[in-house]
Amino acid sequence: MHAAARISLASGEDDEMDDIPFWKTKTLTEMTTPEWESLCDGCGLCCLNKIEEWDSGDVYFTSIRCKLMDGESCRCTSYPNRWDFVPDCVQLTPEKVPELEWLPPTCAYRLVNEGRDLYWWHPLISGDPETVHIARVSARGRTVSENDVDLDDFEDFIVDWPLTVEDDMEASPPAKP
């Protein structure tokens, strides 16, 4: 059984429907705040600095994380107050998700918006927030803080791994020893 919140149906409806997770029955705009927040898998990829080509609009990920992102947990160290420190931090909303082409292909907000299911390693599926790191989908151990890199050197940190989905990411979870 998924660790996700379940929908409750009125009596007399099909009992099979009781186990359908909210992300399969609701659009992003229909979700409650707790449901919306739980879609974040904690990968930290959206908090990586990106470079946008001024002439083409192409966006490139870097391995440079926001100064507020903890490199181990891949979570914001000041989430409720982040705009006090990073005024241009992008707040994901149901309206913005379709417009943000740079969202990684593994992002749950993107997947749900596209009508796709979550991967096995998503905490709502696995019940464990560590599986996103075990599957090597997150930024854990791959980044440096923006406080430690000169702005002129950002291009030296361009990476493509946030935009890749490897076959083993889509497969079932690894067998436990």
Automatic annotation (TrEMBL):
One family name in Pfam for this protein: CxxCxxCC
Name of the featured protein: UPF0260 protein GGD50_000477
Superkingdom assignment: Bacteria
Cleavable signal peptide: none
Record InterPro entries: Puta_zinc/iron-chelating_dom, UCP006173
Family classification: Belongs to the UPF0260 family.
PANTHER family: UPF0260 PROTEIN YCGN (PTHR37421)
